[in-house]
Amino acid sequence: PVPCPPGSPAPRLPMALRICTLVCRSWGDRPQLCQVACAVGRAESPVRHGAALPQGLDSSLQQWGVVAPSQRQALARRLREATEATMAALLATEAELSPQQRGGTRAHTDILGVDFLLACVDEALELVALDTNSQRCLETCVLAEAMGRDVGEPRGDLPRLLAEAMLHRAQCHLVEGKDI
Questions:
Q1: S-S: 31 plus which of 60, 62, 84, 97, CB 3.0-4.6 Å?
Q2: What would be an example GO MF term here (predicted)?
Q3: How confident is the model at residue 18 (pLDDT cuts 50, 70, 90)?
């Protein structure tokens, strides 16, 4: 974080940045990052889902003092790669499981949430994966998308990407075992 301006009466509290990402299975079973939402909180008590209003990655990084656009873009690229690699690892693991172990013949993961914490390690910003989930990240990312539209931001790709993932799954189910 950026130090407080000289003469500031209030000390700046150590802050933590939780980054919630949502990734979905796209055509060809490739992971695709759909949405990123961040929450800022105090470092000694990491922010939980629903405990803070979500905001965008770029503005969150600017609050943290990452002012160079190239640094923010590099961090966003690393976040995309880490999120999609997590989903790819899950898809590879699922492919090795039997249908019973997966939960049924058609059971597989289409949407995954991956939470990260942005930490300062040896004076460098590092992404630390916290957990994977689906429902909490989906709720947070949908809220961030809706809040953005309410303040005049253009409509994002989240609704389209989620609809594509669900329609692809439904289409595969409908034509499974049929001759076309």
A1: 84
A2: ATP hydrolysis activity
A3: confident
